[in-house]
Amino acid sequence: MKKIIFIWCLIFAQATAIEAQTQQQIRQILDKTAATVCKKSGTTAKFTIEVEKQGKTSGEILLKGKMFRITTPEALMWFDGKTQWTYLKNADEVNLTTPTAQQQGTMNPYAFVSLYKKGYTYSMKKDKKGNYIINLKAQNAQSHWPEACITISKTTYIPLQIKMRQRNNNWTNISISDFKAKNLSAALFKFDAKQYPSAEIIDLR
Length: 205
Hints:
By secondary structure, the chain is an alpha+beta fold. Helix content is 22%, strand content 40%. It has a twelve-stranded mixed sheet with strand order 7-8-9-10-11-1-2-3-4-5-6-12, covered by helices on one side. β4 and β5 form a beta hairpin.
């Protein structure tokens, strides 16, 4: 009996060690992906985003560290790491806000680059091309993003597709293309009022 218990304990310890190693390997892939996306010099990409029960749009995103700029047919958005400006084309108005990390996550296609670092467990499989498909599950069921699934290129560590589930079980699906590293000026991530002289500025901070 003691021998059987010892064997089961040994099997459990080995399984636990393998699981810890797997989690570490997946975390390393996500770390490399985050570093690829958030280069200090800057990156650009085109995207198509579809929010379940809300609609679909396409656009371009510029990234530099924590800063981003998003352009779609409906709006332009600038975020300099603290302040966000959202220009609504049809209304010709600009809303100023100081978004929380959660609010940023609902707007930035690359929200996962900070999302995965705390409070998530990982699992991984590969597609037919060998690209990584990583599933993230929140340890806290009340998390705004309980689950996410990211497809990552096995060679470049560029995210190809991102799926994120909100707490209301609606999914946000994002496809990424034309990803490039570029040297971007910090000025690109701030709203320039001179370019929109007729726009009404509404400060919601």
